[in-house]
Structures are given as C-alpha cells and as structure tokens.
Amino acid sequence: MKALEIKKGVYWVGAIDWKLRNFHGYLTQRGSTYNAYLIIDDKITLVDTVKHYFFDEMLERIKDIVEPSKIDYIVSNHTEMDHSGCLPGMMGIAKNATLICSPNGEKGLKRHFKKDWNFKVVNTGDSINIGRRNLKFVCAPMVHWPDSMVTYIPEDKLLLSNDAFGQHIASEERFNDEIEWDIVKSESMKYYANIVLPYGAQVQDALKAVESLDIDMIAPSHGLIWRSGIKDIIEAYKKWSTNTCDEKAVIAYDTMWHTTEKMANAINDAFTAKGIKTALRSLQEYHISDVMADILESKYICIGSPTLNNGIMPTVASLLTYMKGLAPKNRIGIAFGSYGWGGQSVGEIEKAFEACKFQLPLKDLKLQYIPDEKELGELKQKIINAIP
C-alpha cells in the first residue's frame, strides 16, 4: 500500500500491523495501525512515526512523496514506542530536522533514546509556520501519558489527535466511513475502555480544547481517520469521560463445577426480568479487555467466582486487578460465588468493588456445593428486589 493523501498535501505514511493480537494485555483481534502523517509545505513535516520493525515500510511510503532527508520537522505527539520507535532512524536520515515535542515529551524521549537531538519544546497555544500552514499545539497530559499532545492544522481543519479517538483495527481502508459503523464504534469503545478510561477528567479538558477548533477531519495515531461522524465520536467521548452508564448489566464469572455458572445464569434472568440488557461473560471464553468494553457503558457490574485456595479463580483476580487499574466509577457492584467449605471468594470480590467505590446493594451472595432450583430462584428474587 502506497502513501495516501488524506488532505491536499497531507499524506498517511504509517504502517498496518496485521499480526498484532496483544497490546499491553489488551486483546487486539483486528490487529492495528500505527499512523504517521507527512505534510508537504515549505517546511516538510512528519508527524509521529511507527513501531521500530515497520521502519522500512514507513520509509518507502515517505519516499513515494519526497526524499526523506528533506524533512525539516518531525513532530512527536507521544513518546510511547509504537509512535516514537522509528525516531532514531528518521533523525539519522533527516539530519537537519528539528524534533518538536511537549516539555514532558522531551524528557521522555531523552530517557528512551539517550540522544541529544535538535529539540524544540512547545506548549499549549504555541504554533509553528511551515509555509501555507500553521501547526498549532495543545498539550493533553495523561491522555494517556504525561507527554501527550495533539497537533492542529487550521488551514486544513485537520486535528492530528494522537491516541484520542483511535481504535485498534488493521485494514487497507483508512477512513471510518469505509467500514461498518458498528465495528468502528465497538473498537472505539474497547480502545477507550482499555486505554483512556482512567483519565476522564483530562479527556474532558482536552474535549473543551478540541470543541473550540474548526475541524472536519480527525486523524488519530491508531486505526481509522474520522472524516465523518465527528460529532458522534466526540459525544461518545463526552459520555465515556464522565462515566455515564446505561441501564445495562455485565455478569462476568469463572466456574469449576458449574455452581457459579448457574448463579450467573440466575442473575442474568433477574436482570432480564427487569427489562435490563445484559452481557453474560464466562472468563474462560471472554478476554478481560473485551469485558472492559462491556463495563464501559454498564451500570451494574456483577462478578462471580468459586472459592479456590481461600481466594478467587485466577481469571477473576486478573479481571479485578485490570478493572481497578482502569478505575470505572459510578457503578453498582454485585459479587457472587460458590464454595465447598471456605467461602472467601465473595468477600474478596467485594473488597475490589469497595476499592473502586462501587455501591454494593447486596452482600454475601454465595451458595454451597450444588444449588437446587429453590435456592437459585431465591437468588434471582434477591437480585430483582435489589434493582430499582
């Protein structure tokens, strides 16, 4: 695939990672892209690079447009290695290039690469003229690293948004309206839930800055470029960043001898009886990163485990640790589980919910050995009674 012109004189020159299936513990079934953008103007500018092993692929795309040694500026919106991995190679080729980054970006890049490149540090409100265009910078710390920033080109109404508004999708299509909306929305939700969720307050600050700009295209660092539906994805980010939930329930569990599974099904039936949509997720079948996408928009978080070695199943422990790090808020937690003689699993799950500051309308929902229909019916009724 050659370089693709996304605006007059602005080209996508990134890389497609068809094989990627794991990104920091996040299951990426659709692969990903690492998006880099080449701007042809009086001063030739490259915005971001790609993972180091895609250097040759990116370089060939740049060569389709211009001799790489002629690049005047390289903008590093983010230090993380999936974006900065090819900086040493590019700075070695474009020997006279100035490297533009945020204050924290300079610190991070120097720590990563131990190079004394020609840095130019920018802050929010700073701009650089490259000819017909001006590059304007907005620092967006903790969306999702301290160094993060976005680059805006007012003349093209183009926002190069770094990790915001991204998705992990590998495809030859470059624009969001070339793929079904349900897929783009689903992958955008999953991306937000697994990467951006802890930084809601910072996202809200960034959204205020973005909404003040005249934009008709958003080009993120991963996935598809938004040339339509921009209002929709911004509204979605507003919802997610404020932890606004739908009347939905996630029921995630592991089981040994099917008792906890039976409890999960009874709880699922209770929510269904109340007219509440559910996502029933066996952690033997569903990855925790997919469950987090369910959690993102769900008000009720129900997690169950049998007692194992005075604790919980490893899959459940993994989900709870992962969820606590991503810090969803304003949820209602329901812990449940089965046991033979100890019965500690439910208490362990409740502790995790309390750490997340979830409301716990019910406690100590556990059944011993093999429950009969009467016990399962009583469990279902308890849930029904506890749901407003």
Short characterization:
The protein is 35% helix and 23% strand.
Topology, please?
Elements: E1 4-7, E2 10-12, E3 15-17, E4 22-23, E5 26-27, E6 32-34, E7 37-39, E8 45-47, H1 55-65, E9 73-75, H2 81-84, H3 87-93, E10 98-101, H4 103-113, E11 119-121, E12 127-129, E13 134-139, E14 149-153, E15 158-162, H5 181-196, H6 200-211, E16 217-220, H7 230-241, E17 246-253, H8 259-273, E18 277-282, H9 288-296, E19 298-304, H10 314-326, E20 332-339, H11 345-355, E21 365-368, H12 373-386
Parallel strand pairs: 8-9, 9-10, 10-11, 15-16, 17-18, 17-19, 19-20, 20-21
Antiparallel strand pairs: 1-2, 2-7, 3-6, 4-5, 7-8, 12-13, 13-14, 14-15
Helix pairs in contact: 5-9, 6-7, 8-12, 9-10, 10-11
Q: How would you characterize the overall build of this protein?
A:
This protein is of the alpha/beta class and 388 residues long. The chain folds into 2 domains: 4-241, Ribonuclease Z/Hydroxyacylglutathione hydrolase-like (Metallo-beta-lactamase, Chain A), CATH 3.60.15; 246-386, Rossmann fold. It contains 12 helices and 21 strands. The protein has a 7-stranded mixed sheet. Helix 11 links the parallel strand 20 (332-339) and strand 21 (365-368). The radius of gyration is 24 Å and the shape is elongated. The termini are far apart.
